[in-house]
Amino acid sequence: MGAPSPMPGRFTELEVDRPPIAFSEVLAFDVNGDSIHIVHQKPGYSDADAIVHFHVAKVIYLGEVFPGDGYPTIDPAQGGTLDGLVNTLDGWAGSAFRFVPARGEVTDGASVKAFRDMIVAVRDRVKHRIDAGRTGAQILAEHPTADFDARWGHGRVQPSQFVQEIYDALKSGNQK
Question: 103 is in which domain, residue-wise?
Answer without folding.
Answer: 26-172
